[in-house]
Specification:
The protein is an alpha/beta fold. It folds into three domains: 2-198; 289-444, Heat Shock Protein 90, CATH 3.30.565; 467-577, Response regulator (Rossmann fold, 3-Layer(aba) Sandwich), CATH 3.40.50.2300. The protein has 16 helices and twelve strands. A five-stranded mixed beta sheet has the order 2-4-5-7-6, with helices on one face. A five-stranded parallel beta sheet has the order 9-8-10-11-12, sandwiched between helices. Helix 2 (16-37) runs antiparallel to helix 5 (105-126), helix 3 packs antiparallel against helix 4 (74-99) and helix 7 (154-247) crosses helix 13. The radius of gyration is 45 Å and the shape is rod-shaped.
């Protein structure tokens, strides 16, 4: 309703210059004619008074031009407009009542005809604002009609009646036109509001569509990256394991140096696949109940040493911060990656501000992934060069970097993205070119106490060999695992698929431990174990995989590829020491495999 009133008053004010000009011109012409047909000076005085009123209307219009019409002041401006119209109408009405007795019949007819034209014009110009229309029309017509009614002449009475009828007709017509105008304004206002809502919905739809497209793109890249990393882990496992076995058989110093150089390359390759798996959200995490304030505080010295003295590190840590479940090692790595990116964006130095806050569910700033959850926010803001929208869109893609060749792998932010998404949270980047960058990490508030991950201490290897079944579809990885186990002194059998492993176990062959690959054609590792335990519930299992997805319904131990002899030795010893699910079952020994 406020918008309609504003438009009514504004539309009428737009007509004020025309109304003032018409009023001055018509009063001037009328005064000239009346002066010529009569001997009185009243027309000249009337013209002066009417001109003053027109001047006041002009000043009101100028004042209006300097103001801003709002809902709060529209009523006041409408009142001033109606008062101006009232004064303009009275200049004609009272002027006519004074002039008519002093001028002859021709002058009277001329004045009444001009008055009728002014009333009709006033209705046309004031249609948007009904109070203004009625104020001018009634003020201009009623004093003249009453003056004519007071005369004794039948002709004056008839003319007065005609003026009243004319005024009533114009009032009704003006009211009708005002309704049409108001309905049109209301319709335009509603259409404008609907258009604004539609544009907002379209913008939101496009934003959602863009976010979905980006999420789908990152998901597709993540799946591809995870698959490549898994296969690459198999290759690294075979290569690094073969080098480790070869090291024990070499004595030449130069050959050993070459071998260790190759082992260093294998280690770097393993770290690369670890970053790829983090982006693909397939890294093995060990979440614990953690306070991000404590992590930030403990990491501050390392951050300062890593990014150098030219960058000032500041804190703005919230009191009473909620706990969250996070792998503290990965969180520390994420902080370091973001800090290094911030340092590179501030070559001449600057500030890095680390802030934490509690964010309640439903907050408009929350990412869609955690919109309905209470979250802990950790944000890192730098004063660097900032990012363009195009760079922000690709910032989480693996191997994407804006740094010079050799100064970045492009895996820093992609690792942060993968770890936080795998932890149930989300990451957002807010930045403008030249205005710095803010990386925001949202993690769900922990509900209850988490089951902390514990590490088993390394125990001395046992002297007696265990009966171990190795199941892996990759022949090279399977061969290396078998060789490792034989080096430990274990009795080893092998299978190249879940079905082959089930066939061995269903024969009743003894088995102290199954070393099981998870991702295999046909039956997955966890499916194979589930079927095997239907008949052998006491079965102990150690999973070995290039992925690190949590196995639903399984609490069996897991190690990641590529692994070393020491890693496998410790994992096998710990798995063998686990309490069996069922102690029943006869055991007959495997044939001990001969070492090559």
């Amino acid at each position: 309703m406020g918008a309609v009133r504003i438009e009514q008053v504004a539309a009428t004010f737009r007509q004020v210059p025309i109304a003032v000009l018409v009023n001055v011109v018509n009063t001037g012409i009328t005064a000239t004619v009346l002066t010529a047909v009569s001997s009185t000076r009243l027309p000249v005085l009337w013209f002066g008074a009417a001109t003053l009123v027109s001047g006041a209307g002009w000043l009101l219009w100028r004042r209006y031009r300097l103001a801003t019409l709002q809902v709060q002041n529209v009523r006041a401006w409408g009142t001033l407009l109606a008062i101006g119209a009232l004064l303009g109408g009275l200049s004609w009405g009272i002027g006519g009542a004074v002039l008519l007795p002093a001028i002859p019949g021709f002058g009277q007819a001329f004045f009444v005809s001009v008055l009728g034209g002014m009333c009709a014009g006033g209705v046309v110009l004031s249609v948007p604002h009904l109070p203004t229309l009625l104020a001018f029309l009634l003020a201009a017509s009623l004093p003249v009609a009453l003056r004519l009614f007071a005369a004794d002449s039948m002709a004056d009475t008839a003319l007065a009646a005609m003026i009243i009828v004319f005024a009533v007709a114009l009032s009704l017509a003006g009211t009708h036109l005002n309704r049409f105008f108001t309905a049109g304004v209301r319709l335009r206002s509603e259409l404008n509001d609907a258009n604004i809502r539609l544009r907002a919905e379209v913008a939101e739809h496009r934003k959602t569509e863009a976010n979905l497209h980006q999420a789908q793109k990152l998901e597709a890249v993540g799946q591809l990256t995870g698959g490549i990393a898994h296969d690459f882990n198999n290759l690294l496992t075979v290569a690094s394991g073969s080098l480790e076995l070869l090291e024990a058989r070499m004595s030449d110093e130069r050959s050993l140096r070459l071998l260790r150089s190759a082992q260093g390359a294998m280690s770097r390759g393993a770290k690369l696949t670890e970053s790829l798996l983090a982006f693909a959200r397939k890294q093995r995490l060990e979440p614990v109940l953690a306070d991000l304030n404590c992590i930030v505080t403990e990491m501050t010295d390392l951050l300062r040493r890593s990014i150098g003295p030219t960058v000032e590190v500041r804190h703005a840590l919230a009191a009473g911060l909620w706990p969250t479940l996070i792998d503290t090692t990965q969180m520390a790595t994420a902080l370091l990656n973001i800090a290094i990116n911030a340092r590179d964006a501030m070559p001449r130095g600057g500030k890095l501000v680390i802030e934490t806050a509690n964010i309640h569910a439903g907050d408009s700033d929350l990412p869609e992934e955690v919109l309905d959850q209470d979250c802990v926010l950790l944000s890192m803001t730098d004063t660097g060069t900032g990012m363009s929208p195009e760079v922000i869109e690709r910032a989480f893609e693996p191997f994407f970097t804006t740094k010079e060749v050799g100064k970045g792998t492009g895996l820093g932010l992609s690792t942060v993205f993968g770890v936080m998404r795998q932890s149930g949270g989300g990451v957002r980047i807010r930045s403008r070119v030249g205005e710095g960058t803010t990386v925001q990490i949202y993690l769900p508030r922990a509900k209850g106490v988490s089951k902390l991950a514990t590490e088993n201490a390394i125990r001395p290897r046992t002297s007696s060999g265990a009966r171990v079944l190795v199941v892996d579809d990759d022949p090279d990885v399977r061969w290396l695992t078998v060789e490792y186990l034989r080096e430990m002194g274990h009795f080893v059998a092998e299978a190249d698929s879940g079905r082959a492993a089930l066939a061995i176990l269903e024969r009743g062959d003894p088995c102290d431990l199954v070393v099981m690959d998870q991702v295999m054609p046909g039956l997955l590792g966890i499916e194979t174990v589930r079927l095997a335990r239907q008949t052998r519930p006491e079965l102990k299992v150690l999973f070995v995989t290039g992925y690190a997805d949590k196995f639903e319904g399984s609490d069996d131990p897991l190690i990641m590829k590529p692994f070393t002899l020491a890693t496998l030795t410790e994992a096998v010893q710990n798995a063998l020491r686990q309490k069996p699910r069922n102690e029943s079952g006869n055991v007959t020994p495997f044939r001990r495999a001969r070492a090559p």
